[in-house]
Each structure stands twice: as structure tokens, then as C-alpha cells.
Amino acid sequence: MHDKRVRVRIMLPHVFTWMPMPHLPQIPAHFIRRAYEVLENPQEQVNKNFELGITNQEYMDRKIIKDGKEVGSHCQVSFDLGEEWDRWVVENIHPVFDDTGVRLSWGDSGIGGPHVDNPGKIRFFYLLERGGEDTETVFYYHPDIPFIFNMDEWNEKYPFSYDNVDELHVVERAQFPLHTWILFNGYTLHGVENIDTTKRRINFNVSVRPETFTHCVRPI
Length: 220
Ligand SMILES: [Fe+2]
Hints:
The chain has 4 helices and 14 strands. The chain has helices at about 30-40, 50, 55-60, 85-90; strands at about 5-10, 20, 65, 70, 75-80, 100-105, 110-115, 120-130, 135-140, 170-175, 180-185, 190-195, 200-210, 215. The longest helix is centred in the N-terminal third of the chain and has 12 residues, at about 30-40. The two termini are about 15 Å apart. Fe (ii) ion binds near residues 117 and 186.
């Protein structure tokens, strides 16, 4: 069948949190199997977030305040899925990207602390396992911090983060759909709450610079 897809350059709205991308294809089963193989022994794999300088051990060990108590914070570890996956992403999700792979939420507390993604980026994000029935992504606001944080001027080896959740206003609580691509604005202060520590939270990720973002349209 003749493919009538057309790519158009789209200026994203400056302020958005996330939006569903249900027109993008679900991830084929063999990549899901590959992801589970990689996640069988995550400690033996290379954490790309360290390799790329996106996070460091200090950030992984951070403590946050929630409901007046000091607790640890979940953090993402990220793993490569190989060239076949990269090619599939180019052909089906976005033609250029900074980084892609499968990511696991790591830690023994019930919360992933507020942070802005490092470096500045938007993400195509595909949730494979939620990390519990009640787990939700939370977008926050602090009156002294721009809602869209300028990560491009943040020259540190770890993400900008805010450690006292009690001082933040909640802008939105979201439960992303499973097995569906969404577009996520990583320039916002966000975190994950209500993680069931007996469950895993797993997602596929494609990081894209906003200035390269194009949108695929297909006449119907
Ligand atoms: Fe994030």
C-alpha cells in the first residue's frame, strides 16, 4: 500500500505537560521481549544515564522531603536496546533523537523526586509497566522557578531538582496510558508518586530536541 505519510515541522506550544500520541504504532513484541531480557539483570548492564552524564550517583542517592519526612527517591536507570531498535524508532517514531532505550525506575521509596530532565528535551514515552495501580506522574510548580525551566543553561552533571515536595504546588496528576506513546515535556518540574515498591515501573523513551520536532501526518 502506498504510504501517504507526510512529515511537517510543528512548533510545540511552549507550555504543555503531556499529550497522547495514539497514532504512533505500538512496540512490536520482539522488542518488548528484548527489553525484559535486558532488565533481568539490570545491575550487570551499562546505565546509559551515567554514561551520558545525565545523572550521577549523588543524584541517585538524593533524599527528599514528603509529608514532613525525609525519604529516598526513585531514579531512572536507562539501557540500550541495540541498532535494530534505533532503526525502528527512526522509521516509526521520530527521524532524529538524542537518546533512546528502555528505562527502569530504581529505588526503594514510593516516590521519584521532582526534577527537570537533563539535558533539556521532550520525550516520546511508552509505559510498559506502571509501578502499581495508583502510581501517577505529577507536574509541579514553584513560584520562584519558571514552569518551563531553562535546562540548556544548566551545566551540571545531574538534573535540576527540588527536594522538598511539600513546598511545591501540584499542577497536574496524570496516569499515562499503558502501551501507548505519549509526548512528555521534560522541561517541567515533574516526579512520580504512589509507587508500589513491590512492582516495577518500566518505560521506553525517545528523547528529542524540541527544535528538531516534526509531526507525521497521514491523510485518511
Ligand atoms: Fe523525568
